[in-house]
Specification:
Glycosyltransferase, binds 2-acetamido-2-deoxy-beta-D-glucopyranose, three-stranded antiparallel beta sheet
Length: about 450
């Protein structure tokens, strides 16, 4: 049914924001060794990043508001005029408070797998760029949004081997077009447990909790240690009761199908090492690398595949923490594969992926097999990576053939027909589940601005 493709499309908006953050993260933590100086104008992005750029500061503020647009539960300091409290009883049938968390894209589902990934990447962005965010007053909003998700995840993990991974029934949800504040659909819960395992979703949730524990370590040590406790338990659960949630709960395949859990296990262990410095997690990534890391085959970082993120995260250790890690050379294969990912992204690299539009936007369709990528002897600096990341951000913000910002609410011209229930229905409309579709079908621009949403789907060349 329509709803499926809608949901898919919607989710792209949600995650592109994050992916851009991720590219920037990658660009900053990573420096490819320089053999021949490649970049003629490395002065264009002197590193390390320091000075504030108004364009990116403004777009960050816009992008951050999307988290507020998506919040479920009893809102605190709500600044989005057309949003209000919703889903207050989520989780009540299991005597849990699952009211918080965020809705997926334009619908009212709460999908634990992508939501946890969002939290992990938001944590990462805060850990790398917290000071920059703070300089433009975005650190507090970022931490608040992160906590809105981790509060939900903590409650969704009521005992060691039980994790609630979904609130809502996508079939029922997609038959309605209503505001979250007015929804009347049933809100069934789905869990994974020892008999119905979900390794990837449990491991991703562990990664979210472990990374967030680092974010809150100084400002809220009690909360931080609570998160870490959940992270460790979830990792053990994920690792011990192995099975893909896509196999144990086939219904999830229609929405956020997982193509495997090996990447999430390595990713979670990497975050747990950063959060605990417990060497057993390093042994874990070392021992399981051959099975799961796909060394030598670069992949795109996404909600389904975290290998590239894992490689960058572990490369970080070889750069900055090598002396603390016995045999850190064993992490070399992760670092080499991370380099191959960067080489694929850089447009002037001999191993650059062909998956980009004529105007240079990376376009993820299918990854070309880049088997022996080390930029083939050519080398690039961190400035090249940062320039590349900027080119992608600039494209999204308006430097494209349509001269249009693809970030809703940013610039003079941005999309006004967003597939988003709350944005499409006037806040004072008295519509219910099914007669709300007239708002979806309306030929007028959205009455409310889904600030911070990003265009997904096909982007013209
Ligand atoms: C385990 O999870 C499945 C799928 O969500 C559920 O049907 C089952 O009742 C759960 N098992 C227990 C013991 O609660
Ligand atoms: C989900 O992923 C698995 C593993 O890659 C694949 O076999 C299956 O066909 C996918 N399901 C859907 C509905 O795409």
């Amino acid at each position: 049914m329509e709803g499926k493709s809608r949901s898919r499309r919607g989710c792209c908006c949600w995650f592109l924001v994050i992916i851009i953050l991720a590219i920037v993260v990658g660009a900053v933590v990573y420096t490819i060794k320089k053999k021949t100086s490649h970049s003629g104008d490395s002065a264009s992005s002197p590193g390390p990043p320091g000075s504030l750029n108004k364009k990116y500061a403004d777009s960050l503020k816009v992008a951050m508001q999307f988290f507020d647009v998506q919040k479920s539960g009893k809102l605190v300091n709500n600044k989005i005029s057309w949003r209000g409290d919703s889903a207050l009883k989520d989780g009540s049938q299991a005597r849990l408070d699952l009211s918080k968390g965020m809705y997926d894209a334009g619908d009212h589902m709460k999908f634990g797998f992508p939501m946890a990934f969002t939290a992990t990447v938001l944590s990462w962005a805060i850990l790398e760029y917290g000071d920059q965010m703070d300089a433009v007053n975005q650190l507090q909003p970022a931490q608040d949004s992160l906590k809105w998700i981790t509060d939900y995840l903590v409650n969704a993990h009521p005992s060691e081997n039980v994790l609630y991974i979904q609130v809502g029934d996508p079939e029922a949800d997609h038959k309605c077009w209503d505001r979250p504040e007015a929804m009347t659909e049933k809100r069934p819960l789905t869990q994974v447990n020892t008999s119905v395992p979900g390794t990837e979703v449990a491991a991703e949730t562990a990664a979210a909790m472990a990374s967030a524990s680092l974010v809150f370590k100084k400002t809220d040590p009690t909360y931080s240690s609570t998160l870490l406790k959940h992270a460790k338990q979830l990792f053990t659960f994920a690792n011990k009761y192995r099975g893909s949630y896509s196999e144990s709960i086939p219904e999830v395949q229609t929405y956020y199908n997982s193509t495997g859990y090996g990447d999430e296990l390595l990713w979670a262990a990497s975050w747990l090492y950063h959060a605990t410095e417990d060497k057993s997690y390093i042994e874990y990534v070392r021992d399981n690398g051959e099975s799961y890391a796909k060394f030598g085959s670069p992949t795109w970082f996404s909600w389904d595949n975290k290998l590239a993120g894992t490689q960058v995260l572990l490369s970080r250790l070889t750069f900055f923490k090598a002396k603390d890690i016995p045999n850190s050379g064993d992490l070399q294969s992760y670092k080499e594969t991370a380099e191959a990912v960067m080489c694929g992204l850089l447009p002037d690299s001999p191993t650059a992926t062909k998956s980009r539009t004529e105007n240079g936007l990376i376009w993820v369709s299918e990854w070309n097999a880049l088997q022996h990528a080390q930029c083939d002897g050519e080398s690039f600096t961190s400035s090249d990576l940062r320039d590349f990341a900027k080119s992608q951000a600039d494209y999204v913000l308006g430097k494209n053939p349509m001269k249009m910002s693809f970030l809703v609410g940013y610039g003079d011209e941005y999309p006004e027909y967003v597939h988003h229930r709350g944005a499409s229905i006037p806040a004072d409309a008295k519509t219910d589940c099914s007669d709300g579709f007239k708002w979806l079908d309306s030929s007028d621009p959205n009455p409310n601005v889904a600030t911070g949403a990003l265009v997904g789907g096909t982007i013209p060349k």
